[in-house]
Design goal:
The chain has 524 residues and is of the alpha/beta class. It has three domains: 26-284, Alpha-Beta Complex (inorganic pyrophosphatase (n-terminal core)); 307-407, Diaminopimelate Epimerase, Chain A, domain 1, CATH 3.10.310; 419-523, OB fold (Dihydrolipoamide Acetyltransferase, E2P). Helices cover 38% and strands 20% of the residues. A hairpin with a 2-residue loop joins strand 13 (470-477) and strand 14 (480-486).
């Protein structure tokens, strides 16, 4: 049965049945986090005693934003705060033994977006008389690190009501708690602009307080006085930003420094003191991102040749693939074959290191966790994982993965849960798009509505792009005509072919005119 506007609205409304549509007034109190008050008191004490404080972040967007938020706050209250972003290639992830060796002279270390698995490093901190406060949002390991305070919403004793929040949100809550304890009267609401970037980039579900913070953050970004945000807006030629701008434009650029060189360049960009400085720093990040794209395309092409299409979970590896882009390659290969994918590269030590990305309903974390005895390191969440393993364990690992997948009985593995149903072209109008706009921002946990229409006739198809890698269509269905665009495809289509089309609906603004067009995902 075909969808109508009323049915679509009912489906979208159902996504928010549990929590409803929240606003910033619904944000839980900072003290609902376990150890928040304890951490706040210790940091206040360190400030008043003029102890040396150091912050340890992470090299992804969430870690970059978390680090920036803390530094901005300490700048505003006039307190020195040193910060370190571990280098992906030299230091590894998070608070490691290598990083601890660089902070021996500090009295207090605070982690943001990492630290919950840093058991060995926490013991080293103790040895050097460094008190440790961990703020993280990731899953808890079997053994927790030794720390003065651990703020992580996934702890059983934690009363914070939302399980899926990112590191930058927890950093913001710590700032809110410090702001009150210090009676600083800093306008911390303005910081939510940066927090919204982290929520989207870290693929948090855009529901409950996450949606409230992103909606507020998007408004605040358009008014932001931060030179870095102004430089971004100018480069993108935007007056207002939406979730897609962050997910597809801003986040990849911020991520690229950590992937290709050192994430400190992204933090320094966000901390730029003036527009000219920010513009120069942004150019450096754009160069990193352009380099990332070229390397990613090369590795993707090589990875595609290795794929066994009979595997339920794809696993490929290369001897010298750039470890900074294997996660993106996993996502691209996964989209091509519509299967969960793990991409590995051989490290200098001879082990395999890489990332995995899930596809549709598959819980890749759960399936891979069952292979933990074959792995040296492992972490992540439902849709994205990181892992290392000895080369000799590769074949047993692949074999067990396939079996674990079968054990889960994913009968719907090839049906896209984001497709709401069949939609006739006659139902596509501005009333429909205006209604759907009320449920924005779309993203993880609240995906942009996707539809399928059968018996569509291709009336025209034109290749676009420098390398003719995109397609523009004119589609006809039961007398209704609509334009469609499909990006990055080498598929061939014939005029008058009768097809099924999977798509989202977009309002295309051009030359002061607004037209509806289909953003085509598949033509079957």
């Amino acid at each position: 049965m075909s969808l109508t506007k009323v049915k679509i609205e009912k489906i979208l409304n159902g996504r928010f049945e549990q929590d409803g549509f929240l606003s910033l007034s619904n944000l839980p109190h900072p003290s609902s986090f376990k150890d928040m008050n304890r951490a706040t008191e210790r940091i206040v004490q360190a400030i008043r005693k003029q102890e040396k404080i150091v912050l340890i972040g992470d090299y992804d967007v969430d870690g970059i934003v978390s680090t920036t938020l803390m530094k901005l706050f300490f700048n505003e209250i006039g307190i020195e705060l040193e910060w370190i972003i571990p280098n992906r290639f030299k230091d590894g992830y998070g608070l490691s033994a290598t990083v601890v060796s660089r902070i021996k002279d500090y009295d207090l270390a605070i982690t943001v977006d990492n630290g919950i698995s840093a058991v060995e490093a926490s013991l080293l901190c103790k040895e050097y008389n460094i008190e440790l406060i961990i703020t993280d949002h990731h899953l808890l390991p079997d053994i927790l690190p030794e720390a003065y305070a651990i703020i992580d919403q996934k702890q059983e004793e934690c009363n914070f009501p939302y399980d899926e929040v990112c590191g930058a949100q927890i950093a913001w809550y710590l700032i809110a708690s410090l702001n009150k304890a210090l009676k600083s009267n800093i306008n911390i609401k303005s910081y939510i602009a940066l927090v919204s970037i982290a929520i989207i980039a870290d693929m948090m579900p855009l529901q409950h307080i996450n949606r409230a913070m992103v909606l507020s953050g998007l408004q605040l970004l358009s008014q932001s006085q931060l030179p870095a945000i102004k430089a971004f807006m100018e480069r993108l030629d935007k007056v207002n930003l939406n979730a897609e701008d962050i997910g597809f434009q801003i986040a990849p650029i911020l991520n690229s420094a950590g992937r290709m060189d050192d994430a400190k360049w992204s933090v320094e960009f966000l901390l730029s003191s003036n527009k000219a400085d920010a513009t120069i720093r942004l150019e450096r990040l754009v160069e990193f991102n352009n380099s990332r794209k070229l390397i990613e395309q090369k590795i993707t092409n090589e990875a595609l040749t290795q794929v066994d299409p009979n595997d339920n979970i794809i696993v490929v590896y290369g001897d010298d693939w750039h470890e900074g882009v294997v996660g993106i390659v996993a996502a691209r290969v996964g989209r091509t074959f519509e299967k969960p994918t793990i991409v590995l590269t051989k490290s200098k030590e001879g082990n395999l290191k890489g990332s995995g990305r899930s596809f549709h309903i598959c819980n890749l974390f759960k399936i891979t966790e069952s292979c933990r005895e074959l792995l040296d390191k492992f972490g992540g969440h439902h849709a994205a994982i990181g892992l290392t393993l000895p080369l000799k364990n590769l074949e047993p690992f692949k074999k067990k993965l396939q079996q674990n997948y079968l054990n889960e009985n994913y009968n719907e593995a090839y049906s896209d849960p984001d497709i709401l149903g069949i939609l006739n072209f006659s139902e596509i109008n501005f009333d429909l798009t205006n209604m759907m706009r009320q449920y924005e921002p779309f993203g993880q946990g609240n995906p942009r509505p996707k539809f399928v229409t059968h018996n569509v006739i291709i009336q025209e198809v034109v290749s676009m792009g420098k390398e003719k890698e995109h397609r523009r269509f004119t589609f006809a269905h039961n007398g209704a005509i609509l334009q469609g665009v499909m990006f990055k495809t080498d598929a061939l289509f014939q005029v008058f072919d009768r097809v099924s089309v999977v798509y989202t609906i977009n309002e295309n603004h051009f030359n002061n005119r607004i037209n509806l067009q289909l953003m085509v995902e598949k033509v079957l």
